[in-house]
Amino acid sequence: MAEFSIIETYFSRESNSSVDLGVGDDSALLTPPSNQQLVICTDTLVAGRHFPLDTSPHAVGWKSVAVNLSDIAAMGATPHSILLALSLPNIDEEWLSEFSQGLYDCCDQYSVSLIGGDTTQNPHLTISVTALGFVEQGLAVTRSGAKVGDLIVISGSIGDAAFALQHLGHPLQRRLDYPTPRCELGRQLKGLASSMIDVSDGLAQDLGHILAASHVGAKIDLSRLPIHHALSHLSENKQWQYALAGGDDYELCFTITMQNYEKLLQLQPNVTTTIIGQITQDQNLTFEKDGLDHPLQFNGYQHFA
Ligand code: ADP
Ligand code: MG
Protein backbone atom coordinates (compact mmCIF):
# COMPACT_ATOMS: atom_id res chain seq x y z
CA MET A 1 0.00 0.00 0.00
CA ALA A 2 1.51 3.33 -1.05
CA GLU A 3 1.56 6.57 0.95
CA PHE A 4 -1.29 8.04 -1.10
CA SER A 5 -3.60 5.09 -0.64
CA ILE A 6 -2.92 5.17 3.14
CA ILE A 7 -3.97 8.82 3.20
CA GLU A 8 -6.97 8.18 1.00
CA THR A 9 -8.14 5.09 2.88
CA TYR A 10 -7.60 6.16 6.48
CA PHE A 11 -7.24 9.94 6.72
CA SER A 12 -9.51 11.51 4.13
CA ARG A 13 -12.92 11.68 5.78
CA GLU A 14 -14.92 14.75 4.95
CA SER A 15 -14.22 17.85 7.05
CA ASN A 16 -16.74 20.06 8.83
CA SER A 17 -18.41 22.70 6.71
CA SER A 18 -16.22 25.35 8.40
CA VAL A 19 -13.17 24.01 6.55
CA ASP A 20 -12.70 25.58 3.08
CA LEU A 21 -10.25 22.93 1.85
CA GLY A 22 -9.13 19.84 3.77
CA VAL A 23 -6.91 16.82 3.05
CA GLY A 24 -5.78 16.42 -0.56
CA ASP A 25 -4.11 19.61 -1.70
CA ASP A 26 -0.70 21.09 -0.82
CA SER A 27 -2.18 22.90 2.18
CA ALA A 28 -5.55 23.25 3.87
CA LEU A 29 -7.59 26.45 3.78
CA LEU A 30 -9.60 27.99 6.64
CA THR A 31 -11.38 31.31 7.02
CA PRO A 32 -10.73 32.51 10.59
CA PRO A 33 -13.88 33.81 12.32
CA SER A 34 -13.77 37.59 12.59
CA ASN A 35 -12.35 39.11 15.80
CA GLN A 36 -10.87 35.79 16.90
CA GLN A 37 -7.29 34.77 17.46
CA LEU A 38 -5.84 31.56 16.07
CA VAL A 39 -4.61 29.23 18.83
CA ILE A 40 -2.11 26.53 17.76
CA CYS A 41 -0.20 23.78 19.54
CA THR A 42 1.62 20.53 18.78
CA ASP A 43 2.24 17.42 20.84
CA THR A 44 4.13 14.31 19.81
CA LEU A 45 3.54 10.78 21.08
CA VAL A 46 6.48 8.38 20.74
CA ALA A 47 5.62 4.67 21.06
CA GLY A 48 7.07 3.17 24.24
CA ARG A 49 7.79 6.61 25.63
CA HIS A 50 4.40 8.33 25.78
CA PHE A 51 2.27 5.20 25.73
CA PRO A 52 3.05 1.52 26.47
CA LEU A 53 3.93 -0.41 23.31
CA ASP A 54 0.90 -2.68 23.66
CA THR A 55 -1.61 0.19 23.92
CA SER A 56 -4.53 -0.46 21.58
CA PRO A 57 -4.18 1.44 18.29
CA HIS A 58 -7.66 2.89 18.84
CA ALA A 59 -6.52 4.40 22.16
CA VAL A 60 -3.33 5.75 20.56
CA GLY A 61 -5.44 7.50 17.93
CA TRP A 62 -7.78 8.95 20.55
CA LYS A 63 -4.99 10.06 22.83
CA SER A 64 -2.91 11.72 20.11
CA VAL A 65 -5.86 14.05 19.45
CA ALA A 66 -7.02 14.42 23.05
CA VAL A 67 -3.69 15.66 24.44
CA ASN A 68 -3.69 18.45 21.87
CA LEU A 69 -7.33 19.44 22.41
CA SER A 70 -6.43 19.64 26.10
CA ASP A 71 -3.80 22.30 25.31
CA ILE A 72 -6.33 24.26 23.26
CA ALA A 73 -8.88 23.99 26.11
CA ALA A 74 -6.27 25.23 28.59
CA MET A 75 -6.19 28.55 26.71
CA GLY A 76 -9.97 28.97 27.03
CA ALA A 77 -10.17 28.39 23.26
CA THR A 78 -12.43 26.20 21.13
CA PRO A 79 -10.64 23.52 19.08
CA HIS A 80 -11.36 23.60 15.36
CA SER A 81 -9.08 21.23 13.44
CA ILE A 82 -5.94 19.10 13.54
CA LEU A 83 -3.04 18.06 11.33
CA LEU A 84 -1.41 14.67 11.70
CA ALA A 85 2.27 13.88 11.05
CA LEU A 86 2.58 10.13 11.17
CA SER A 87 5.86 8.18 11.09
CA LEU A 88 5.24 4.46 10.65
CA PRO A 89 7.79 1.64 10.89
CA ASN A 90 5.72 -0.46 8.46
CA ILE A 91 2.30 -0.58 6.88
CA ASP A 92 -0.03 -2.53 9.13
CA GLU A 93 -3.53 -2.06 7.81
CA GLU A 94 -5.25 -3.40 10.90
CA TRP A 95 -3.27 -0.97 13.05
CA LEU A 96 -3.99 1.93 10.68
CA SER A 97 -7.68 1.16 10.58
CA GLU A 98 -8.07 1.08 14.38
CA PHE A 99 -5.78 4.06 14.88
CA SER A 100 -7.71 6.20 12.42
CA GLN A 101 -11.01 5.14 14.02
CA GLY A 102 -9.75 6.25 17.46
CA LEU A 103 -8.47 9.50 16.04
CA TYR A 104 -11.76 10.26 14.28
CA ASP A 105 -13.79 9.22 17.36
CA CYS A 106 -12.01 11.90 19.39
CA CYS A 107 -12.35 14.42 16.56
CA ASP A 108 -16.08 13.72 16.27
CA GLN A 109 -16.64 14.01 20.00
CA TYR A 110 -15.30 17.56 19.95
CA SER A 111 -16.44 18.59 16.43
CA VAL A 112 -12.89 18.82 15.13
CA SER A 113 -11.75 18.06 11.55
CA LEU A 114 -8.55 16.40 10.34
CA ILE A 115 -7.45 18.84 7.63
CA GLY A 116 -4.00 17.61 6.63
CA GLY A 117 -0.75 16.01 7.63
CA ASP A 118 2.23 14.06 6.48
CA THR A 119 2.93 10.34 6.27
CA THR A 120 6.47 8.97 6.40
CA GLN A 121 8.29 5.76 7.11
CA ASN A 122 10.54 5.67 10.18
CA PRO A 123 11.80 2.78 12.34
CA HIS A 124 10.06 4.25 15.38
CA LEU A 125 6.29 4.84 15.51
CA THR A 126 5.82 8.55 16.15
CA ILE A 127 2.57 10.52 16.04
CA SER A 128 2.66 14.27 15.96
CA VAL A 129 -0.61 16.18 16.02
CA THR A 130 -0.98 19.91 15.56
CA ALA A 131 -4.26 21.38 16.79
CA LEU A 132 -5.83 24.67 15.75
CA GLY A 133 -8.49 26.53 17.65
CA PHE A 134 -10.00 29.97 17.98
CA VAL A 135 -10.67 32.34 20.84
CA GLU A 136 -12.14 35.85 20.92
CA GLN A 137 -9.43 38.49 20.56
CA GLY A 138 -7.75 39.11 23.92
CA LEU A 139 -9.73 36.51 25.87
CA ALA A 140 -7.21 33.62 25.87
CA VAL A 141 -6.34 32.43 29.37
CA THR A 142 -2.56 32.24 29.75
CA ARG A 143 -0.31 30.97 32.55
CA SER A 144 0.73 34.44 33.64
CA GLY A 145 -2.40 35.99 35.15
CA ALA A 146 -2.62 34.40 38.63
CA LYS A 147 -3.15 36.98 41.39
CA VAL A 148 -2.46 36.80 45.12
CA GLY A 149 -5.61 35.52 46.86
CA ASP A 150 -7.01 33.68 43.81
CA LEU A 151 -8.35 30.20 44.43
CA ILE A 152 -6.50 27.28 42.83
CA VAL A 153 -8.97 24.84 41.30
CA ILE A 154 -8.56 21.51 39.51
CA SER A 155 -11.03 19.57 37.38
CA GLY A 156 -11.80 15.86 37.76
CA SER A 157 -9.39 13.71 39.75
CA ILE A 158 -5.60 13.59 39.54
CA GLY A 159 -3.12 10.75 39.78
CA ASP A 160 -5.40 8.23 38.03
CA ALA A 161 -3.27 7.90 34.91
CA ALA A 162 0.03 7.57 36.79
CA PHE A 163 -1.53 4.91 39.02
CA ALA A 164 -2.88 3.09 35.95
CA LEU A 165 0.52 3.14 34.26
CA GLN A 166 1.90 1.14 37.17
CA HIS A 167 -1.16 -1.14 37.35
CA LEU A 168 -1.92 -1.96 33.71
CA GLY A 169 -5.18 -3.85 33.42
CA HIS A 170 -6.77 -1.90 36.31
CA PRO A 171 -10.10 -0.24 35.39
CA LEU A 172 -8.38 3.15 35.72
CA GLN A 173 -6.36 2.28 32.60
CA ARG A 174 -9.19 3.97 30.70
CA ARG A 175 -8.07 7.27 32.19
CA LEU A 176 -4.54 6.65 30.87
CA ASP A 177 -5.58 5.45 27.42
CA TYR A 178 -8.58 7.70 26.81
CA PRO A 179 -7.93 11.07 28.45
CA THR A 180 -10.87 13.47 28.35
CA PRO A 181 -9.88 16.93 27.13
CA ARG A 182 -11.87 19.42 29.21
CA CYS A 183 -12.99 21.43 26.19
CA GLU A 184 -16.30 22.68 27.56
CA LEU A 185 -14.85 23.67 30.93
CA GLY A 186 -11.95 25.47 29.22
CA ARG A 187 -14.38 27.48 27.12
CA GLN A 188 -16.52 28.33 30.16
CA LEU A 189 -13.43 29.62 31.98
CA LYS A 190 -12.63 32.14 29.26
CA GLY A 191 -13.13 35.56 30.86
CA LEU A 192 -13.42 33.99 34.34
CA ALA A 193 -10.10 32.25 35.16
CA SER A 194 -7.03 34.44 35.75
CA SER A 195 -4.61 31.72 34.62
CA MET A 196 -4.84 28.13 33.44
CA ILE A 197 -2.76 25.10 32.44
CA ASP A 198 -3.58 21.52 31.56
CA VAL A 199 -1.95 18.95 33.82
CA SER A 200 0.17 16.66 31.66
CA ASP A 201 3.42 16.40 33.64
CA GLY A 202 2.09 16.29 37.22
CA LEU A 203 0.21 18.94 39.17
CA ALA A 204 3.21 20.14 41.22
CA GLN A 205 5.27 20.79 38.11
CA ASP A 206 2.46 22.23 36.00
CA LEU A 207 1.16 24.50 38.75
CA GLY A 208 4.81 25.53 39.13
CA HIS A 209 4.67 26.89 35.55
CA ILE A 210 1.70 29.10 36.49
CA LEU A 211 3.53 30.34 39.59
CA ALA A 212 6.72 31.14 37.66
CA ALA A 213 4.86 32.88 34.83
CA SER A 214 2.69 34.86 37.28
CA HIS A 215 5.48 35.65 39.82
CA VAL A 216 3.42 34.31 42.72
CA GLY A 217 3.41 31.31 45.06
CA ALA A 218 0.77 28.82 46.18
CA LYS A 219 -0.35 26.96 49.24
CA ILE A 220 -2.03 23.60 48.57
CA ASP A 221 -4.23 21.85 51.11
CA LEU A 222 -3.28 18.16 50.76
CA SER A 223 -6.55 16.97 52.28
CA ARG A 224 -8.48 18.61 49.43
CA LEU A 225 -6.70 16.92 46.52
CA PRO A 226 -9.33 15.10 44.43
CA ILE A 227 -7.96 11.55 44.44
CA HIS A 228 -9.93 8.66 42.95
CA HIS A 229 -11.39 6.23 45.52
CA ALA A 230 -9.56 3.39 43.74
CA LEU A 231 -6.38 4.78 45.33
CA SER A 232 -7.79 4.98 48.86
CA HIS A 233 -6.08 1.74 49.99
CA LEU A 234 -2.69 3.42 49.51
CA SER A 235 -0.86 5.44 52.18
CA GLU A 236 -1.59 9.17 52.13
CA ASN A 237 1.93 9.83 51.01
CA LYS A 238 1.65 7.45 48.08
CA GLN A 239 -1.67 9.02 47.05
CA TRP A 240 -0.13 12.51 47.13
CA GLN A 241 2.80 11.24 45.11
CA TYR A 242 0.45 10.06 42.34
CA ALA A 243 -1.72 13.17 42.54
CA LEU A 244 1.10 15.71 42.57
CA ALA A 245 3.89 14.07 40.57
CA GLY A 246 1.98 11.72 38.26
CA GLY A 247 1.54 12.74 34.64
CA ASP A 248 -1.00 12.22 31.86
CA ASP A 249 -4.13 13.42 33.69
CA TYR A 250 -5.13 16.14 31.20
CA GLU A 251 -7.25 17.90 33.81
CA LEU A 252 -7.39 21.69 33.92
CA CYS A 253 -5.73 23.57 36.77
CA PHE A 254 -6.81 27.20 36.98
CA THR A 255 -6.75 30.20 39.27
CA ILE A 256 -9.87 32.28 39.77
CA THR A 257 -11.46 34.76 42.18
CA MET A 258 -14.16 33.41 44.49
CA GLN A 259 -16.71 35.63 42.73
CA ASN A 260 -15.83 34.24 39.30
CA TYR A 261 -15.75 30.69 40.65
CA GLU A 262 -19.35 31.12 41.75
CA LYS A 263 -20.19 32.31 38.22
CA LEU A 264 -18.52 29.19 36.82
CA LEU A 265 -20.59 26.94 39.08
CA GLN A 266 -23.76 28.60 37.80
CA LEU A 267 -22.74 27.45 34.31
CA GLN A 268 -22.90 23.87 35.64
CA PRO A 269 -19.66 22.48 34.18
CA ASN A 270 -19.87 18.85 32.97
CA VAL A 271 -16.97 17.86 35.26
CA THR A 272 -16.46 18.34 38.99
CA THR A 273 -14.06 21.08 40.06
CA THR A 274 -12.29 21.21 43.42
CA ILE A 275 -10.65 24.11 45.25
CA ILE A 276 -7.25 22.83 46.38
CA GLY A 277 -5.50 25.95 47.58
CA GLN A 278 -4.77 29.61 47.17
CA ILE A 279 -2.26 31.87 45.43
CA THR A 280 0.21 33.51 47.82
CA GLN A 281 2.62 36.42 47.60
CA ASP A 282 5.80 34.54 48.56
CA GLN A 283 6.94 32.74 45.42
CA ASN A 284 7.00 29.17 46.76
CA LEU A 285 4.79 26.14 46.34
CA THR A 286 3.95 24.90 49.83
CA PHE A 287 1.67 22.19 51.16
CA GLU A 288 -0.40 22.07 54.31
CA LYS A 289 -2.42 19.49 56.15
CA ASP A 290 -4.81 20.19 59.03
CA GLY A 291 -3.67 23.82 58.95
CA LEU A 292 0.00 22.91 59.43
CA ASP A 293 2.82 23.14 56.91
CA HIS A 294 3.64 19.73 55.48
CA PRO A 295 6.85 19.86 53.42
CA LEU A 296 6.90 17.58 50.38
CA GLN A 297 9.32 17.15 47.52
CA PHE A 298 7.98 16.24 44.10
CA ASN A 299 9.31 15.98 40.60
CA GLY A 300 7.09 15.90 37.53
CA TYR A 301 7.85 14.13 34.30
CA GLN A 302 11.16 15.24 32.79
CA HIS A 303 11.52 14.49 29.08
CA PHE A 304 15.32 14.63 29.10
CA ALA A 305 15.99 13.30 32.58
P1 ADP B 1 3.02 17.19 -0.26
O1 ADP B 1 3.93 16.21 -0.93
O2 ADP B 1 2.54 18.29 -1.14
O3 ADP B 1 3.53 17.66 1.06
P2 ADP B 1 1.62 14.93 0.71
O4 ADP B 1 1.76 13.94 -0.36
O5 ADP B 1 2.55 14.85 1.88
O6 ADP B 1 1.68 16.38 0.05
O7 ADP B 1 0.14 14.93 1.27
C1 ADP B 1 -0.97 14.95 0.38
C2 ADP B 1 -2.18 15.45 1.13
O8 ADP B 1 -2.51 14.53 2.16
C3 ADP B 1 -1.97 16.79 1.80
O9 ADP B 1 -3.21 17.49 1.77
C4 ADP B 1 -1.63 16.42 3.21
O10 ADP B 1 -2.02 17.44 4.12
C5 ADP B 1 -2.46 15.17 3.42
N1 ADP B 1 -1.89 14.18 4.36
C6 ADP B 1 -0.71 13.52 4.28
N2 ADP B 1 -0.55 12.67 5.31
C7 ADP B 1 -1.66 12.81 6.09
C8 ADP B 1 -2.09 12.22 7.30
N3 ADP B 1 -1.38 11.30 7.95
N4 ADP B 1 -3.27 12.62 7.80
C9 ADP B 1 -4.00 13.56 7.17
N5 ADP B 1 -3.66 14.15 6.02
C10 ADP B 1 -2.50 13.77 5.48
MG1 MG C 1 4.24 16.13 2.60
From TrEMBL:
<protein>
    <recommendedName>
        <fullName>Thiamine-monophosphate kinase</fullName>
        <ecNumber>2.7.4.16</ecNumber>
    </recommendedName>
</protein>
<dbReference type="InterPro" id="IPR006283">
    <property type="entry name" value="ThiL-like"/>
</dbReference>
<dbReference type="GO" id="GO:0009030">
    <property type="term" value="F:thiamine-phosphate kinase activity"/>
</dbReference>
<comment type="function">
    <text>Catalyzes the ATP-dependent phosphorylation of thiamine-monophosphate (TMP) to form thiamine-pyrophosphate (TPP), the active form of vitamin B1.</text>
</comment>
<comment type="pathway">
    <text>Cofactor biosynthesis; thiamine diphosphate biosynthesis; thiamine diphosphate from thiamine phosphate: step 1/1.</text>
</comment>
<keyword id="KW-0418">Kinase</keyword>
<feature type="binding site">
    <location>
        <position position="26"/>
    </location>
    <ligand>
        <name>Mg(2+) 4</name>
    </ligand>
</feature>
<feature type="binding site">
    <location>
        <position position="201"/>
    </location>
    <ligand>
        <name>Mg(2+) 5</name>
    </ligand>
</feature>
<feature type="binding site">
    <location>
        <position position="200"/>
    </location>
    <ligand>
        <name>ATP</name>
    </ligand>
</feature>
<keyword id="KW-0808">Transferase</keyword>
<feature type="binding site">
    <location>
        <position position="43"/>
    </location>
    <ligand>
        <name>Mg(2+) 1</name>
    </ligand>
</feature>
<dbReference type="GO" id="GO:0009229">
    <property type="term" value="P:thiamine diphosphate biosynthetic process"/>
</dbReference>
<keyword id="KW-0547">Nucleotide-binding</keyword>
<keyword id="KW-0460">Magnesium</keyword>
<keyword id="KW-0784">Thiamine biosynthesis</keyword>
<feature type="binding site">
    <location>
        <position position="118"/>
    </location>
    <ligand>
        <name>Mg(2+) 1</name>
    </ligand>
</feature>
<feature type="binding site">
    <location>
        <position position="71"/>
    </location>
    <ligand>
        <name>Mg(2+) 3</name>
    </ligand>
</feature>
<feature type="binding site">
    <location>
        <position position="26"/>
    </location>
    <ligand>
        <name>Mg(2+) 3</name>
    </ligand>
</feature>
<dbReference type="InterPro" id="IPR036676">
    <property type="entry name" value="PurM-like_C_sf"/>
</dbReference>
<dbReference type="GO" id="GO:0000287">
    <property type="term" value="F:magnesium ion binding"/>
</dbReference>
<feature type="binding site">
    <location>
        <position position="71"/>
    </location>
    <ligand>
        <name>Mg(2+) 2</name>
    </ligand>
</feature>
<dbReference type="InterPro" id="IPR010918">
    <property type="entry name" value="PurM-like_C_dom"/>
</dbReference>
<dbReference type="GO" id="GO:0009228">
    <property type="term" value="P:thiamine biosynthetic process"/>
</dbReference>
<dbReference type="GO" id="GO:0005524">
    <property type="term" value="F:ATP binding"/>
</dbReference>
<dbReference type="InterPro" id="IPR016188">
    <property type="entry name" value="PurM-like_N"/>
</dbReference>
<feature type="binding site">
    <location>
        <position position="50"/>
    </location>
    <ligand>
        <name>substrate</name>
    </ligand>
</feature>
<feature type="binding site">
    <location>
        <position position="71"/>
    </location>
    <ligand>
        <name>Mg(2+) 4</name>
    </ligand>
</feature>
<keyword id="KW-0067">ATP-binding</keyword>
<feature type="binding site">
    <location>
        <position position="42"/>
    </location>
    <ligand>
        <name>Mg(2+) 1</name>
    </ligand>
</feature>
<feature type="binding site">
    <location>
        <position position="301"/>
    </location>
    <ligand>
        <name>substrate</name>
    </ligand>
</feature>
<dbReference type="InterPro" id="IPR036921">
    <property type="entry name" value="PurM-like_N_sf"/>
</dbReference>
<comment type="similarity">
    <text>Belongs to the thiamine-monophosphate kinase family.</text>
</comment>
<dbReference type="Pfam" id="PF02769">
    <property type="entry name" value="AIRS_C"/>
</dbReference>
<feature type="binding site">
    <location>
        <position position="143"/>
    </location>
    <ligand>
        <name>ATP</name>
    </ligand>
</feature>
<feature type="domain" description="PurM-like N-terminal">
    <location>
        <begin position="24"/>
        <end position="135"/>
    </location>
</feature>
<feature type="binding site">
    <location>
        <position position="43"/>
    </location>
    <ligand>
        <name>Mg(2+) 2</name>
    </ligand>
</feature>
<keyword id="KW-0479">Metal-binding</keyword>
<feature type="binding site">
    <location>
        <position position="248"/>
    </location>
    <ligand>
        <name>substrate</name>
    </ligand>
</feature>
<feature type="binding site">
    <location>
        <position position="198"/>
    </location>
    <ligand>
        <name>Mg(2+) 3</name>
    </ligand>
</feature>
<dbReference type="Pfam" id="PF00586">
    <property type="entry name" value="AIRS"/>
</dbReference>
<feature type="binding site">
    <location>
        <begin position="117"/>
        <end position="118"/>
    </location>
    <ligand>
        <name>ATP</name>
    </ligand>
</feature>
<feature type="domain" description="PurM-like C-terminal">
    <location>
        <begin position="183"/>
        <end position="286"/>
    </location>
</feature>
